[in-house]
């Protein structure tokens, strides 16, 4: 396989997938390359449901194998919020800064050791024949009191990564791709990659 479609319009995700797949010699094509693909409504209540929804809808539309990513931030002191609603936590506008402010406001006064959180990523691979496979990846950390760093996207500036002693937004793309929820999920997918596509390789 020389090219894979990622069913996303999120530029941050696309850049990370491009770097991760380049190691395998695979080009990434995203929905940013298409003018006429509407957003898939994320009506699921779990990351897996939404990832499967996005992957199967786009695979049916394009008649090609596609990967979809549904991901988000889970904050323990907020009973798991923003969770599957991470992209639209502060409203439908998908405003990263407003989402960050909402999390920080809700966590005001919560001490550092209780600000535990994790990023979760579910990847769904959907084939045009209806086969679907999912894998997951998780990255543990803490929510800071203020945004720090310019890199990455979404909640990266308020997510402190203990093993790097910096926020996710202070890491280079390469460093984030060593430890992130997305990179871990993709590692799991790459482990089963040949098995997933063996019938296609034979024919
Ligand atoms: O559905 P697509 O088109 O893929 O793009 P999206 O931005 O809507 O993506 P999701 O529905 O999966 O929502 C995930 C949200 O969780 C946050 N998020 C996911 N991965 C992240 C990461 O690596 N760093 C920071 N925030 C992340 C970010 O706010 C995303 O918008
Ligand atoms: Mg989305």
Quick structural summary:
With 203 residues, the protein is of the alpha/beta class.
Would you write up a description of this structure?
It catalyses: dITP + H2O = dIMP + diphosphate + H(+); ITP + H2O = IMP + diphosphate + H(+); XTP + H2O = XMP + diphosphate + H(+). The protein has one domain (3-202): Alpha-Beta Complex (Maf protein), CATH 3.90.950.10. The chain has helices at 11-22, 47-62, 96-106, 173-179, 181-191, 193-196, 198-202, and strands at residues 3-6, 27-30, 66-75, 116-126, 132-143, 159-161, 166-167. The mean pLDDT is 96. The chain has 7 helices and 7 strands; from the N terminus they run βαβαβαββββαααα. It is globular. β4 and β5 form a beta hairpin. The chain has a 7-stranded mixed beta sheet with strand order 2-1-3-4-5-6-7. The structure holds inosine 5'-triphosphate (ITT) and magnesium ion. Inosine 5'-triphosphate (ITT) binds at residues 8-10, 13, 42, 69-73, 86-87, 99, 119, 152-156, 168, 180, 182.
């Amino acid at each position: 396989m020389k090219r894979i479609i990622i069913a996303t319009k999120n530029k941050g995700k696309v850049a990370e997938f491009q770097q991760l797949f380049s190691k395998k010699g695979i080009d990434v094509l995203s929905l940013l390359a298409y003018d006429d693909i509407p957003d898939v409504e994320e009506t699921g209540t779990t990351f897996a449901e939404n990832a499967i929804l996005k992957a199967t809808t786009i695979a049916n539309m394009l008649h090609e194998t596609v990967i979809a990513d549904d991901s988000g931030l889970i904050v323990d002191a907020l009973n798991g919020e923003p969770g599957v609603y991470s992209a639209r936590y502060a409203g439908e506008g998908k405003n990263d800064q407003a989402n960050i402010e909402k999390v920080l406001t809700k966590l005001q006064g919560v001490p550092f050791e209780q600000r535990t959180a994790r990023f979760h990523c579910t990847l769904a691979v959907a084939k045009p024949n209806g086969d679907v496979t999912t894998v997951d990846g998780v990255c543990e950390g803490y929510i800071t009191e203020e945004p720090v760093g310019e890199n990455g996207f979404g909640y990266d500036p308020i997510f402190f990564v203990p093993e790097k002693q910096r926020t996710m937004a202070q890491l280079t793309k390469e460093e984030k791709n060593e430890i992130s929820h997305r990179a871990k999920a993709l590692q799991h997918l790459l482990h089963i990659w040949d098995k997933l596509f063996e019938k296609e390789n034979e024919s």
